[in-house]
Amino acid sequence: MKHSLSPLLAALTLALAFAPASRAMAQAGPVELRILAINDFHGYLRPPPGGIRIDDPADKTKKIAVPAGGAETMATLVKHLSEGHANTIFVAAGDLIGASPLLSAMFHDEPTVESMSMMGLAISAVGNHEFDEGVDELKRMQNGGCHPVDGCQGPHPFTGAKFHYLAASTFERRTGKTIFPAYEIRKFEGIPVAFIGLTLKGTPDIVSPTGVANLEFLDEAETVNALVPKLRARGVEAIVVLIHQGGFPTGDYNECPDIAGPIVDIVKRFDSAVDVVISGHTHQAYVCEIDGKLVTSADKFGTLVTTIDLKLDRTTRDVVSAHADNVIVGVGTYDKDPDQTALLQSYDKVAAPIANRRAGAVTDTLSRTPNEAGESPLGDIIADAQLAATASDANGAAVIALTNPGGIRIDIAKKDDGSVSYADVFASQPFRNQLVTLTLTGTQIKDALEQQWLDPKRPRILQVSKGFSYRWDAAKPYGERVIADSVMLNGKRIDPKTSYRVTVNNYLSVGGDSFTVLKEGTAPRVGIYDSDALYAYFQAHSPIAPITPDRIARVN
């Protein structure tokens, strides 16, 4: 009898032993996790001109500009938002670097990587702009070391990122492996949470083809869904996706009415196991629920930090509630972080002599915002500057200059005294692309213009130099939108069989933005950098007034 009761007594003893622990766990409630998130910082170590535009609290029909951004203020805000939260993690959804202002770009974005590391950034997805200088340079950002061409330029050795890049959908064709880990699992009070990082499938179409020639970018949703069983096999139920792709909402920075764009379809195709999606790329601000998933984005240039508060069930280990809020990185609202200030000052000492050079002046802000035909005042000026830099026989004998709108990153804003510095010029053209003058026939020029609508949802209207003009018909099908007899140069119709010298940047010359016709150009002549061409144009023509865009006309 004694022996027959032993198993039962043992079981009762174990049950009694574990009962207090079970009750304690239930009484403790869910594990609370705060995620802080940013996206599309683009090296804006100092606040961007114009800050962030939000609805006017006094009149929702109007917008106001709020000074926001800068690493010094962001670092303080990140600390503030972490206070009182036992479990926090700081993450990013890509494009931390690339298309950066001079202070970061002059040092190949090493200052931004250092700044983010000092803030405690833990994980970042890889954005398309992380590939601006190619995959080898991106790996240097992670691992450290001197630039292979420019060497060690900064005030101290560059040791690489202390945060981890993730790239679930980006594979090296040679090895069949991802360029960085696909995901990272972090435990909070014993509960595992997986963070998956990936960039948009269309990256090869919007970066220099040479920089990603040996890489393959897979479908975003298919990549995530294939990882879900592997994560569950490791005991993971809570999944956060950091994706460099986004949407276009209406409403204010914490709203999400009528969101459209690629992120909507992608999220709807995600496995139901995905709980939170932190997005980017479109430079929008929103907090949404799409297909039962929390989806966020924090504007651009460091103007917002998203707080995402999760509750994790201690038994199921899954997310039981999720709430997000976009917080403005208000200049003057928070003190500047002294460590960030010291970092910026150390780089300023090296960069200031170049950055502060006077370029010239403007009579008013030169806007990059296009009209209904796709032409902008700043786009016209930049194209004119590139033509001026390559028009002489010695420099290429160009008669036309074309530049891509994606390379124009920010307005050249009018300051109180109207002055424009080299840093201002560089900020508007931060990719440091070299100018390339090619020989193209009239037919090839027309065909290249037709490729502006290769993606009908996101046409890329090239900015054109003075003397060149054309009309396009929005009602015509792809390949027939440019009205052939309207393509003019200095008042004369472009002859399909005649050859013309055309200046583009080296990004376009190798088929960037899917302008593959430009790869057919012959007799290439490589010139100066685009930002240097614009600097020289300011020196020669200041003060510069905005041009009324009238070179491109839209019919229908």
The N- and C-terminal alpha carbons lie at a distance of 96 Å
Low-confidence stretches: 1-16
Structure summary, number of beta strands? 27
CATH superfamily of the largest domain: Metallo-dependent phosphatases
Radius of gyration: 26 Å
Instruction: Write down the CATH class of the largest domain.
Output: Alpha Beta
The CATH architecture of the largest domain would be 4-Layer Sandwich
Biggest sheet: strand arrangement: 6-5-4-1-15-16
Number of helices: 13
Helix content: 25-40%
Key structural traits:
556 residues; alpha/beta; Purple Acid Phosphatase, chain A, domain 2; 5'-nucleotidase,  domain 2; 2 domains; 6-stranded mixed beta sheet; 13 helices; 27 strands; globular; disordered N terminus
Summarize the helices and strands and which ones pair or pack.
Elements: H1 2-28, E1 31-38, E2 52-56, E3 59-66, H2 71-82, E4 88-92, H3 102-105, H4 110-119, E5 123-125, H5 135-143, E6 164-166, E7 170-172, E8 183-188, E9 191-199, E10 215-217, H6 220-233, E11 238-244, H7 262-269, E12 274-278, E13 285-290, E14 293-298, E15 304-312, E16 319-328, H8 338-355, E17 358-361, H9 377-390, E18 400-403, E19 419-421, H10 422-428, E20 434-441, H11 442-450, E21 463-464, E22 468-473, E23 488-489, E24 492-493, E25 499-505, H12 506-509, E26 522-529, H13 530-541, E27 552-555
Parallel strand pairs: 1-4, 4-5, 5-6, 9-11, 11-12, 12-14, 18-25, 22-27
Antiparallel strand pairs: 1-15, 2-3, 7-10, 8-9, 13-14, 15-16, 17-19, 18-21, 20-25, 20-26, 22-23, 23-24
Helix pairs in contact: 2-4, 4-8, 9-13, 10-13
